[in-house]
Amino acid sequence: MKKLTIFTLILIASCTIAMAQPRAIGMRLSHVIGVSYQHSLGEKNMLQIDLEFPLFTHMNVSAIYDWLIPLKCPRGSMNLYAGVGGTVGLGWNLGWQYGTMKYPDGTKHKIRGWAGYGYGWGDYGRGRPVFGIFGVTGHFGFEYVFWFPLQLFADWKLTFGGFVGSWNAGDTGRGNGKIKYSGFYVPGIYNIAIGARYFFGR
């Protein structure tokens, strides 16, 4: 009972300290629409977590650890920042990807949706392909926090990663079974955005 009480007090204290740190929540906008959350980890570090829908064909979650570089500012505060983290997600349209599709008989087809050729979920048999997305993400940005609780920012999240998936398309004329696909996650390269967050907790 004593150990449980001590553990509970430590947990409450940890949560209280975390909630006392400056935080911000808002939107990132470009070819993505997403919700962006920042949590301060001290004067020169922060954690950023984003939920985004690039091109309305994917859903991604990224978590990034950033290092802040404070800039002189007569009023409010300005920072440059850079960091690294990871991105995972799901996609439901191959139209913006670069990779290959492999049919059950072993033949392959190139996916070049990034070049303007749309490969949607109905183009290669029956069913809707859903694929997993993963990658390492670099982060570079600039933010300005007003003297009232508003933060404006511009950033670039550069994700080097891939996608993998398969679906059972039945008889495609190239054998029965699953069509597999994999490749490089192209939308992660040009994730440049502007946004605004409500700043609180300080």
Describe the structure in your own words:
By secondary structure, the protein is mainly beta. The chain has one domain: Porin. Helix content is 9%, strand content 56%. The chain has one helix at 2-20; strands at 23-29, 33-40, 45-52, 58-71, 77-91, 98-102, 108-112, 131-145, 150-168, 178-184, 191-200. An eight-stranded antiparallel β-barrel has the order 1-2-3-4-5-8-9-11. The longest helix has 19 residues, at 2-20. It is elongated. It starts with a helix and ends with a strand. Residues 2-21 and 115-126 have low confidence and may be disordered.
Percentage of residues in helical conformation = under 10%
Low-confidence stretches: 2-21, 115-126
- Top CATH class: Mainly Beta
How many individual helices? 1
This entry's quaternary arrangement is single chain
Strand content: over 45%
The number of strands is: 11
- Sum up the overall morphology in one term: elongated
Key phrases:
elongated; single chain; Porin; mainly beta; 8-stranded antiparallel barrel; disordered N terminus
Secondary structure blueprint with pairings:
Layout: H1 2-20, E1 23-29, E2 33-40, E3 45-52, E4 58-71, E5 77-91, E6 98-102, E7 108-112, E8 131-145, E9 150-168, E10 178-184, E11 191-200
Antiparallel strand pairs: 1-2, 1-11, 2-3, 3-4, 4-5, 5-8, 6-7, 6-10, 8-9, 9-10, 9-11
